[in-house]
Design a protein that fits this description.
This protein is of the alpha/beta class. The chain has helices at about 10-20, 25-35, 40-50, 60-95, 95-105, 115-120, 125-130, 135-155, 160-170, 180-185, 205-210, 265-280, 300-310, 325-335, 345-360, 375-380; strands at about 230-240, 240-250, 255-260, 290, 310-315. Strands 3-2-1-4-5 form a 5-stranded mixed beta sheet, sandwiched between helices.
Length: about 400
C-alpha cells in the first residue's frame, strides 16, 4: 500500500522555519527533531527568505554622521595627495608667489581653491587679488612665455618635453612653474617625440659570451670620465638600403665619445668606434667596456683591440635590453628625435644627419635629467655656466 503524503498547515511551516532562522541552527538538525525531510524544510526556508528579504538595519544618527565625516575626510586626503604630486615641488624650490598663484589657477578645475591655498601656504585673498588684476598683464606674460616655449621646442625640433623646456627657460632667467609650461605646451599642441618598442639589432654569440662576465650589472654610473664605457649598434633605413651606427658612450658624462657609420655590421665597425673613443678621451687602464653579446663584440679582432687599450670586457644577458640600458637609451633618443621623423633617400644623407645629431646636438646641446639638466660636454669640460644648451 502506497505511503500517504503528509500535509502541513501554513502555521506549522512558519514555526518550523522560525526554528531555523531565529536560532541559526542547521536545517538538518531541526528537520530531524520535527521528523521532516531535510529537503522539505530547506524548501520552506528558501521560500520564506525569498518572500521576506532581510533589510539592512539603518545606522543610528550619530553613526551616520560619523560615516559621512570619515567619507569627507577620505575625499579630502585623496585630493590633497593628488595635488601634492603636482604642486609639492613649489614648496621646496623657493618659487615666487606668482608661480604658486599660476599653479592654483591652472588646477582650479580639478582641486578646491581653499585646499590648494592651504597646502601651498598662500592666502585665498592674495590669490583672488592676483586673479582679479587686469587680465592683460597676466595674458601678456603668458603670451611672452608661450613664444619662448615655442621657440625652444622648435629649436630642438620637437625633441623636448615640458621638463626640459622648463630647464631651458630657467637658464634664460625666466621664472615659471613646470606645471605652467606643461599647460601652455598642451594648450597649443606641443608634444615631444615618443619612444617606440626596443628591438634586438646584434646577433648573439652565446658560446663566446659565456666566458665574459657582466661587470656592470645595470650600474651605469662612473666616478670619472672613461672609467666605464658602453657600446652598441643600431640601424637606419634609407632608400638605398640600411646603414649601421656603432657607438661608444661614456657612463660618467653620457657623451658619445666614439662612433662609426657604415653599410655593414662587421667587427671593423665597432673597432673604429672604440679607436675614436680612445682618441677623444683619456681611457684609464682597466676601464670597463660593456656591450651586448653580439658576435661583433665577441670576435678575436674586438678582443685584441680591448687588450691593446687595456680595457676589461663586460657583457649583459642575451636579449635583455636593461643590461645595456644606457646604450639602448641613446639609440631610442636617436630614433625618436631624428631618424623616425626623417626620410633618407641616400645613405650619405643619413650619415650626415647622424653625425650632426651626435656631435652638434646630442653631445653639445641636449640636456639630460640624469646629469642635473646639463649637456654631456658640459660634464666632460667641467663647465657650470649652463650656456651651451640654452
Amino acid at each position: 500500500m502506497a505511503r500517504q503524503k503528509r500535509s502541513y498547515s501554513q502555521e506549522y511551516r512558519d514555526e518550523a522555519v522560525k526554528m531555523v532562522i531565529e536560532t541559526s541552527r542547521p536545517i538538518a538538525v531541526v528537520a530531524r527533531e520535527l521528523g521532516l525531510l531535510d529537503g522539505t524544510l530547506g524548501n520552506w526556508v528558501s521560500a520564506y527568505r525569498k518572500s521576506h528579504p532581510v533589510e539592512e538595519q539603518p545606522l543610528a544618527l550619530p553613526d551616520r554622521a560619523r560615516l559621512k565625516e570619515l567619507e569627507r575626510e577620505n575625499r579630502e586626503l585623496r585630493l590633497q595627495n593628488e595635488f601634492l604630486k603636482k604642486g609639492g615641488g613649489l614648496l621646496r624650490s623657493g618659487s615666487s608667489v606668482s608661480d604658486v598663484y599660476e599653479l592654483i589657477d591652472a588646477e582650479k578645475a580639478d582641486f578646491p581653491i581653499v585646499m590648494m591655498c592651504t597646502e601651498l601656504e598662500v592666502s585665498r585673498s592674495g590669490y583672488y587679488e592676483w586673479r582679479d588684476r587686469p587680465e592683460s598683464a597676466t595674458a601678456a606674460r603668458r603670451g611672452v612665455l608661450l613664444a619662448a616655449i615655442t621657440a625652444i621646442f622648435s629649436r630642438h625640433e620637437g625633441r623636448y618635453g615640458h621638463r626640459r623646456v622648463h630647464e631651458i627657460l630657467r637658464r634664460q632667467g625666466r621664472r615659471c612653474s613646470v606645471e605652467l609650461v606643461r599647460q601652455l605646451m598642451a594648450q597649443v599642441g606641443l608634444r615631444a617625440a615618443q619612444p617606440r618598442k626596443w628591438q634586438v639589432t646584434t646577433r648573439p654569440d652565446k658560446q663566446a659570451a659565456a666566458r665574459v662576465p657582466d661587470l656592470v650589472r645595470r650600474d651605469f654610473t662612473a666616478t670619472a670620465a672613461g672609467a666605464k664605457l658602453v657600446a652598441d649598434i643600431t640601424y637606419v633605413h634609407t632608400w638605398q638600403g640600411w646603414i649601421y651606427l656603432a657607438t661608444v658612450i661614456d657612463c660618467y658624462s653620457r657623451a658619445v665619445v666614439g662612433w662609426a657609420v657604415a653599410d655593414h655590421m662587421r667587427t671593423e665597425l665597432v673597432v673604429d668606434a672604440i679607436e675614436m673613443a680612445a682618441r677623444n678621451i683619456t681611457i684609464p687602464k682597466g676601464a670597463i667596456f660593456h656591450s651586448d653579446r653580439g658576435s661583433q663584440y665577441m670576435s678575436h679582432e674586438y678582443r685584441r683591440t680591448l687588450k691593446k687599450l687595456g680595457l676589461r670586457s663586460s657583457v649583459g644577458r642575451t636579449g635583455v635590453c636593461w643590461d645595456n640600458a644606457l646604450a639602448e637609451s641613446f639609440n631610442a633618443s636617436l630614433k625618436n628625435e631624428m631618424v623616425n621623423r626623417t626620410v633618407f633617400p641616400m645613405k650619405a644623407h643619413a650619415r650626415d644627419a647622424i653625425v650632426r645629431y651626435v656631435e652638434l646636438y646630442y653631445n653639445r646641446q641636449r640636456i639630460h635629467s640624469a646629469l642635473g639638466y646639463k649637456t654631456p660636454y658640459e660634464i666632460l669640460s667641467g663647465r657650470t655656466d649652463n650656456t651651451l644648451a640654452a
